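pinging the channel bc i need a second pair of eyes. not urgent but kinda urgent?? the chain im working w is below, pasted from the shared doc
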Amino acid sequence: MAEPRLRLVLALAALSTATGTESMIRTFTPFYFTVEPADTVAIRGASVILNCSVFAEPKAKIEWRKDGTFLNLVSDERRQMLPEGSLLIQSVVHSKHHKPDEGFYQCVATIDSLGTIVSRTAKVTVAGLPRFSGQPQAVSVHQGDTTLLGCEVNSDLVPFVRWEHNRQPVVLEGRFLKLPSGSLEIGNVSDSDAGSYRCSVETAGLSKTSEETELTISPEIGVERKMKFLQQPVPISKIAGQTVILPCVVSGYPTPTIHWSRNSEAIFERFQKITLVGSGSLQINDVSEDDAGIYNCIVENGNETMHAQTELSVQVPPHFLKRPANIYAHESMDIVFECEVIGSPMPTVKWIKNGDMVIPSDYFKIVNERNLQVLGLVKSDEGLYQCVAENDVGNERASAQLIILEHAAAAAGHLPSAPRDVMALLVSTRFIKLTWRPPAEPHSEILTYSVYYSRDGTNRERVENTSRPGDLEVTIGDLMPDVKYVFRVVAHNKHGAGESSAPFKVATQPEVQVPGPAQNLVAQAKSPTSITVTWQEPHSVNGPIINYKLYYMEKGADSEQDVDVGSLSYTMNGLKKFTEYSFRVVAYNKHGPGVSTEDVVATTYSDVPSAPPQNITLEVRNSKSIVVHWQPPPPGTHNGVITGYNIRYKKGGRRGETDTTGGSQLSQIIDGLERNTEYSFRVSATTVNGTGPASDWVSAETFESDLDESRVPDKPSSLHVRPLINNIVVSWTPPENQNIVVRGYTIGYGIGSPHAETIRVDYKQRYYTIGNLEPNSHYVIALKAYNRNGEGIPLYESTATRPLTDPFDPSEVYIFDLFNNPYTPVPDPSPMLPPVGVQATVLTHDTIRVTWADSSLPKNQKIIDARFYTVRWKTNYPANTKHKTADTTTLSYIVSGLKPHTLYEFSVKVTKGRRSSTWSMTAHGTTFETVPTSPPKDLTVVSKEGKPRTIIVNWQPPSEANGKITGYIIYYSTDISAEIHDWVIEPVVGDRLTHQIQDLTLDTSYFFKIQARNSKGMGPLSEFVQFRTPKALGSSGKFGKIPPMMDSGSDTRHSISGHNSPHGSPTSSLDSNMMLIIIISAGVFTIIIVVIIALICTRRTNYQQKKKRAACKSANGSHKYKGNSKDVKPPDLWIHHERLELKPIDKSPDPNPVMTDTPIPRNSQDITPVENAMDKDHQRRNSYLGRELEDGMSTLSGRRGLRPKMMMPFDTQPPQPVISAHPIHSLDNPHHHLLCDGPSSPTRSYLRHQISSRPLGPSVDRANSTESVRNTPNSDMSPAPTSQAHPVESIEADVPAVSYLPGSQEEESNRSVPTAHVRPSHPLKSFAVITIPPVSANYETASSSTPLLSQTGPNPQVHSVKTASIGTLGRSRSPMAVTVPSAPDVAESTKMLEDSDSNYGPDELTEEMTHLTGLMKDLNVITTA
């Protein structure tokens, strides 16, 4: 709304100008800095100038402030202001305790009639006198290699470092490069580079030169030298626009090549932007934010690759995108100064008015974290406002001017009178709605009304204008609850503002009865363990305050704590040192808790460290120097930022000396020591508060003489190995040349190659036991001595570990018997005692502290000799884990890098010189749990069989569980791009590895993820797995529901699709509609074939009919047919029926569930009509057997070829006993084979019926015939569906049909002989396809009868017996033997085959059935007799 008001003011000003009042409008005066002071590094004793220049009319008064205080330059002899306003400081003073010239300076310019502006802040730093913290070291380098000469000076003096070679300045170009540390890099060293070098620092006429050092060049011998970093890149921060060098200096042979990558992308040189300098360092000019990232130095020489990584961060000073603009305004108006700024880190914004900081209040507010809003302007608000943007690398300011305009005087009599009857229409806690009546004397049209309001007792008014002419009400918002306000209304016409109404007072309503937020909450640290929190009463207390509740929480904690306070301040004691805490306060009255304050943050003061550095170790470099290594104090004991370390060292009992390092340095070289002297060292950490406790003393002895380390050691003088079963004891003696430094030995070993495993041991060791080896295996061992220059020539030995059966007892071997070389020193026969009291204290999930005591030390456990301890540890999972070891010279060691939630065992041994103890007793410790760091594995999703809306999710535990898994969470969604919190969650409690999810949507793709959890939290999510549910409940497929007509128990060889499911169930890609089409097509095809057969049958001659009828009648005899009786037809006892399985009506002695009674129809009405019979048979052909048939089927019958039978419809006949014939398969016959063929033609089907009516020969063994009968499969493996006429218990199997062509000579002669059962069924169903005997079968050897069921005990005799089980209405009989005629001889069979083209007509078929009925009656008479 400020813009409409401003337009209104400008319109009024224009009107005033038109009436001759233009002199009242003032213009903005240009007033700004042309030059501002910059950060400066001064030299002690030199002069420094801080520039400042101002553009102003009239001339501005310039002053200077240092650290916020104005400088008195009149009486200052060293500081004076130059004519243009710059500050000159002569003879800069700087000492350890007196630094008067260092600080922050600002130039302040003032114009009395306008206001004050302040320049940016400039930091003045005084550089100390040149001083070297370390001297350059002599260096020996191979020709063509790269070397580095160090010059250790303060970082602020690096720009002043110069190098000299043989007292001549070094030109820093090409192969010579000065690194950011001041060191000199020389690449591709040549003989001309040899000589003396020194570095010097020159500052303002003061200079200091280091000691000279020699660079020795040795010829390149062409032997491979392992690559090593001489200097690696370190994390660095630069300001945009500067130049940065990322050092990467490497030596080695072959000469390595260096290339760089940033954020995993290769870096290529760009002209004037990115270049490679020196031997491979990276120089980036004019850096910008786009250059920030992770840089990786990649070093290769063809044999190996090394990496060194660093981070470059680029900081950008504040930069204004939008500067505040000058503003005209009237009193009581609200204005906003806008200021938009960027930078890195993001700058903070403050506002200054006439040189003083603007403190936010009810009328001065910082909005959007950067804009300044002034509410209810008054005349004193006029002046100069500056937006100040600051970050870590700079500060910038932008100014704007505010002018308060005077209202133009209007002619009397033309202004409106005061509005009338001002009243409050609605009063709330935060707003008031006012209304009034128009003035009694408007004098012209009222353009608008202005409502002026202020808090009662203040003179700063705010104004709210009506939005449209004629409005007589306005709502004033943003008020404070329970505060009295004063309102007045002024009307405006075209002449100006009229008379004001009388002041009207009204108070806002109080808010809810609970107190408001406490005011001015402040938290301030008082000590390293205490913070004092103060506050003031809420503005709205709504009754007496009973007490306050102070809530506080440590940074990173999960929950906050609280304490009740009865006053307006409280001091929290017992807090952690140098730890950040947050606080908030809630006031309570009788109605309960009030509104909470915003959180305030405070950090306890730092303190000295409460623990010493860890793992102090010493490394003797030569006769005059020792390197001290350590690790920082344990986490939580720093109590501040570690600013450095103090190394205290002494010789014997003398008073020691102290050396200091930086906070990030974890090693220090102590030079200038005496030869062959024992020194003791201890280290303590320091913060800004002081030095913490020191570590225990550790000792080491300098070498007796300076040994040569310019070359690698010679090979060891001897190497001996002693194989055991799972170990090999390796012993050796040092190289013969004792003048070369040996810092340790490298042992390589492996099966057939010494490069499989590598172990490094200390230079003091003379033997080592290689463990966890394979028994009875050939190992090759290599031993090399090494120093800083590289590894020496290896010495090889090979041996084979002993087999497990070797009775050798390794405990009988004395280690030192292995030293049989003349150079081997005589060992001390007295072994050292192992450490005792080994304890393992778990610190974190990956750290365990191991402590022990040494019984050979004095009671105070003070180490006074050069002994050291070896700690070894391992875990038993996996079982073949090898021990890891570490050496230390103290009585404790912190083992880090362990696996979470893992049991480790630790043991310690002590070594002194050539003596060593055995391993101590083990101590055990289990690391703490931590959250899983890997997701569950092998996530799979499958559909539940028969339930397509239910899926089963399976998975495996995460490989890095890091604790006991307490559960899993399964996420699933149909949208892979959805946020994870929008996925459906399925929790799984415990360590189960499977879960069912129900009620999913059909034909929908789901995405699944899973994560594991333990007691410490949740692990990462797995990759998603996609699964699509089936389309419909009736769909057939892998996961579809199996339709009723596709029972899973059917023989899979007759599955529709020809594919089997994993469980034996047929699987098909056809749906139910396709199945129905196939079934109908098959039925139509069958009817067409039957019609064709009937037409063919009517064309047969009467002669053939008589001949066949005579053959049928001759079947009543029981004698053996001869060759001339070929016109005689045997009785049809082997005709196949709908279920060609022997089914006796009476109870069988064998309790076989398949051999059940068959219901018999009692009259002709009970017999199923042909159409229905065919219909049900049609259903049976397309159904599948249940589990009973699948389980009961023999292996042999399951392999036999099966053929569907053909049914021919005829008129319904009265119920008669029917004989059903089945082949009895001998389970002992090894000649059974699979015979599968497609359906035969109708003619061939009749041919099989014609020929197979004779007995088959020769006879076969009938052992286990009962089981054969019981397990004979159906020809089409299609049981009848459940119905009243055909119950499920009546499932039967048909005879396997054998494909036959006339004239075929290849047929199995050892054929099963049919066995007959008589059971009631439809008599016309006897015309079915049966097996065909081979043409060349020998019928003379056929026996006359075969028992139906085999008896328990010995196998029956080898002869064929036909057995009939004849059932009648109302009663049942036991099976009895029936003698049937044998098959005709070969001649007759041949004749019958020749007549196979003949067929029956309808009349002949009727006669055939009449004959069959008579035969059944004869059989019935026999059985009843």
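so The chain is about 10% helix and 35% strand. and The longest strand covers residues 305-322. — does that match what u expected or am i reading it wrong
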